[in-house]
Amino acid sequence: MRPLRILIAKPGLDGHDRGAKIIARALRDAGMEVIYTGLRQTPEMIAEAALQEDVDAVGLSILSGAHNTLLPRVVEALRARGLGDIPVFAGGIIPEEDIPFLKAHGITEVFGPGTPLETIVRFIETHTPRRAHAESSS
Amino acid sequence: MNKAEWANKVLKPATAKAPERKPLFETPSGIPLETVHAPEDATDWPGAYPFTRGIHPTMYRSRLWTMRQYAGFSTARETNARFRYLLAQGQTGLSVAFDLPTQLCMDADDPLASGEVGKVGVSISTLDDMRTLFAGIPLDKVSTSMTINAPAAVLLALYIATAKEQAGPNADPEAVMRALRGTVQNDILKEYAARGLYIFPPRPSMRLVTDVFAFCKQHMPHWNTISISGYHIREAGSTAVQEVAFTLANAIAYVQAALEAGLDVDEFAGQLTFFFNAHNDFLEEIAKFRAARRLWAKIMRERFGAKEPRSWMLRFHAQTGGSTLTAQQPMNNIVRVTIQALAAVLGGAQSLHTNSWDEALQLPTEASVRLALRTQQIIAYESGVTDTVDPLGGSYAIEYLTDEIERRAQALIETIDALGGAVRAIESGWMQAQIAEAAYRYQRQVESKERIIVGVNAFTEDEDQQLSIQRFKVDPRIEEEQRARLAAWRANRDHERVGALLRQLEETARSTENLMPVLIACVEGGVTVGEIGRVLRRVFGEYQPPQVV
Amino acid sequence: MSETLSWRAPRELARWLSAIERGDAKALAKVRALYRTPSPAHVIGITGVPGSGKSTLIATLARALREAQHPVAVLSVDPSSPFTRGAILGDRIRMRDLAGDPGVFIRSLASRGAPGGLAAATADMVTALEAAGFDYVFVETVGAGQDDVAIARLAETVVVVEAPGLGDDVQAIKAGLIEIADILVVNKADLPEAQRTAQMLAAALALGFETVGHHGAAAMPAAQDVQHGWRVPVLLVSATKGEGITALIEALRQHRAWLHTSNEGLRRKRRQAEAEIYARLYAQLARYVQMHLDQAALQRWVEACAMRTAHPEEAAEALLAHVLQAIKPC
Prior knowledge:
The complex is a heterotrimer. Chain A contains 6 helices and 5 strands, in the order E-H-E-H-E-H-E-H-E-H-H.
């Protein structure tokens, strides 16, 4: 089976990329190909990268508190490009009570602080329908 | 220097100037404590080179550290209320947190600011915002620390303009500036290396830093022109040794930049301060502060030939480690913060911020901030560790760790020197890669339970049993309010003057002249933070980070 | 998937590239067809050791070319971990400025174990990008040095990027990259040592004249170019400041013009075709070997060679004979 391709991006203005970098390394060590875009990505930049890179999933890390504004916009930008089937997961400092709102706005899963890397890896492996689809169509 | 010589040459003049808090310090059992305990023939003494045991001979026996809680959220008005509350609770200095658009020199109505206004700190776009932030707080009386880096010069200009307004039109501006006490973080190198809030490329950024040095040397002698920060390097995942090494390597780069800008080392070195993390490993942390102090003294004296003892002294602010706080069983964080704060005090901090236990979950509530401040007060007034200087000095373990950290940090600094210095080591991504590597290693250890985090990978509880916490939420409407305020501000100013000031700013930026005077003129003339940012971005360009993951 | 490839339909293009990368039969059939229609795109290889600033240089070049409205594609190859097969593809970090421009298409690629500094699918992906109507296709190699020579059989123009301050030696010379260069760029020209680095490169190129004839292995494109009248220019560039970019674009044009007007263009195409055929031949053979290898026999030979009762060459001969036997009927 081909390796999964995952986009890891930091929307918003905060510069705390420790978590994003750790996730990127953990996914690499789980055999995935990780496209890392760096800091201060707008929703449009993220969606454009997801499109060009034809990724299986998008991971967003945000610690600035702007998640309720920015994460739904990423989902919208993906949908506007016909990429509504790409699962989007998020991590960072996101209070429990904001999670239902984010899920209602198209975020597949939110990982809180302290989530074991193993949990995240397994989640991605089991929630990436595009690879299965692409393989079967070829 | 033996004990008698130290008492004569160092202690006596110091106590003559500032006496100890009590004539006699004794334990509850009535055992008297001397200023410092050491064998008569010891060589390392507090208040004397290389300052391993502290920069003052009497340390907290004369004056406790400054309890300085970092605060700032949403609007200037609300932050102002929090400041007044903290001062009323016995806090002794102010510390301003700015929101991300402000820290990136953008106005609240910038498209990229959407969702970020007032979130992690206070939003400041205009002189009016700054005015409101310090309303009723006399700036000639408080000491203010501002966590601001890439646009430090701009926010310092706003602070000066506000102080001048407070003093009234008849006050002598030089006297107003001379009276100001406080710190701007102004440490751009750690932004590239760890914190990510950079704007311009290194060269113009270093010029902004040294412009602040030169301006303050002349006009604001009690102002700390930089707070060279290991805090964020540690938060990004470095080890304690890397924290010391990278911070001091950055400090070396600033000193070199200032020398190249034509300043004399003893003219500005006394205005440099440091900012370290206080982490969980109690012994290593205490030793880290002691090692950093000794290493810096040697660097300043031997490498840069500084003559003034004040230039040799590493003065530092400490903050407990934000990344050590856990979202799981969050009340445990109170205990972590206590241990970390105690390490900072035993390590000889000059000022301290204690984190609130709920910060892994949200911005802290007023109650949790108060508890964090109480933690410091209990250490200061009840624990007794302030009654004799460097009480752990001479402990075999502490002295061994101090030596080891110094030796290993020294070796890392030599590596950075070989790479061409800190600026090069950052531009090439070397420093970032070292930090990312250490962060990942640490995370792996947590995952494999080689490292136990109580409540996270051991002694866990069902989620249901977690206590429900009071939520603190930034009102989402404040973004619109800020935009409205800003629009009104723009409508009511002298447009011609603003245009002229922006042209003057651009010209000065393209020259090598000090930018501070024109920045002060700009903010006084109604120019906004974002407008200044746009001009400087155009002249200086924007930094492109190296690819390090 | 739609049948036409166009830079104006980036989502479809991205999916075709994925299909090519995973070896989808339909996609490969399409590439074969597309290959037969030559494209006017200029395919430019960018190589150089880590830290030389390849991604930044590409970003700056792309920005300059966009000013003249040229659609630009970038394929950036990064290494896969030999242990986990995973990879971190970070080239977009340095190309942040290009985001949001519909005329720029960036695709990151993991090498997936292929030698030579490119991924196995790179050539076919380039064919697809050419067909999609990009005027310029940049291929950024892994940047491991010595080994990064696969680009020479793919690119029309190979730019080798060097930067001062990467150590005492000029890394491109040390890594043997200089031999495949059509253009040498000394990036970070604002650093004080840049001039010296450029001089050392120029000196190394001059020396190259004398040694070319003596080594069979020196039959590399650039070395022969020198013999046939292309003087490899050494250009000082500051990618972050955009200085020297106009001169570099001019050099790229000149090199291309020279290829078209001299016989060298055709000669190079022949050389590249031959190298590409060889590469694919070896790849196919390797696949057959993987497929038909007698695993039991292999284990016996391993044992024998380990005990030194047989020589590995004998083992290889015997195992190959078996593989050839197995594929004969097809």
